[in-house]
Automatic annotation (TrEMBL):
Domain Methyltransferase intervals: 43-142
Gene Ontology MF terms in the entry: methyltransferase activity
Record-given protein name: Methyltransferase domain-containing protein
Keyword list, A-Z: Methyltransferase, Transferase
Coiled coil (UniProt feature): none
GO terms classed as biological process: methylation
Annotated Pfam families: Methyltransf_25
Amino acid sequence: MDSVIDYYTGFAEREWTRLDREPLEYIINYHYIKQYLPEKAHILDNGAGPGKYSMALAAEGYDITLSDLTPKLVALAEKKAKELGLTDQFHGFHHLDAADLCLFQDEMFDAALMMGPLYHLQKEKARIKAVQELYRVTKKGGIVFAAFRSRAHHMYASLQSPDLWKPNDSIGSIQSFLVNGTFDHQEKGRFTGAYFYRVEEIAPFMEAYGFQTAALIGSTAIGAALNENSWNLWKGKGDQEFSKLIELLIETAKDPSLLGISSHLLYIGKKG
């Protein structure tokens, strides 16, 4: 996992602002997180990065425990909580591997977020362990939210801009990627190693380790297929029309036929 730590250490501040620069993922995810969360809860934000979701939930009165693999991101999250006056809502900022939540007791949390680890763990054994740990620390009946990356969308991105996604700059390499789902960027400093999922394997994977599926959401929905010109066109139609576009994308994020085109996917499940 050293490559993941190195990548996010170098991009800590940029990671904090990523969901401001690319807000659709956050808007859709947060809509459904709030829809499924109970009114009061102690939430684990596991693999939280700099804590974008944690800060929003803390501001709404939720109790938060935050963990991440990268020490610099954990430190940045603690700094942001202080700057935002939210420290009292946090019950710790921890440097932990998602596959080994050794500091936390069984059934400690009412709900849990895991918004990054599962697509950075390239080995199946580590992904299984992370899901088992998520299950262990969540209370019975608790809601979990887990992020995945779409294999179909990454194929689409590679076909659109092969030079940006080397070694996926040949049909042979893209075909290999579709079989194994593993991606390691050829260019140093670009997106770290990742594992991309087929849409149809996500729910069965989570269910195999004890979760009951509530929903699978396309975090960027069909908006992931819109280019810059399209976004600018809809923005040019005025705030009211653009708001309707966002509402449409939130609504259609649940459409099973559109899930594959979304860059990120949000699994929502309940501990059985």
